[in-house]
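Q: Hi! First time doing this. I have a protein sequence and I read that you can turn it into a structure. Is that right? Here it is:
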Amino acid sequence: GLRSENAAHRIAVRWDGPRATHTAVFIPRRDTGSTLTVLAGGRLFPGLHHQACFDVRETPGELHVAYASRDGSTRVSVDTQMAAQFEGSTLFANLEEASKFFQKDSAGYSATRDRHRLDGLRLTTSSWQVQPVHVRAAHSSFFDDLHRFPPGSATLDCALLMRDVPVTWSPLAPMLVPEVPLPLPAGNTARSE
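A: Yes, that's right. Below is the predicted 3D structure, encoded as structure tokens:
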């Protein structure tokens, strides 16, 4: 009943728990064209959402998605065209392997206003289907930020497109994030006064 343009910066993660290794997706930033989603963020829609203006153009063979956040902190632009076959990935041998990787980690945990809590959400679909696309151009001020990602640490590997797939989003229990002390850069020492 509700349609809107939305974008999520997603990072696949793996961590060791007390009994097993877990995998999921960490979503440090979500942007939306919906004012309702921003106002209800964290309640109706898990995670912190930022208001953005979207420019989306789609044809059967091409897709252009661009947006700029209203706070000026994030700009993204991606231009793709449908590809006859999956190629160019250094992480996945074929389309099936790439598809399974993303399908198995349907749980995502999003940043909130509380830095010690992540909101959880699971994507479920009765018709998982991805298509390979060729990326003609991709820019993200989030992933291009050298303070956040040192050179070479965030690179585009491949792109997949899901179209006209029925999805259901189900909330998951929030994940608590413990305070983790960050290491000091070499040559610096901690001092209290």
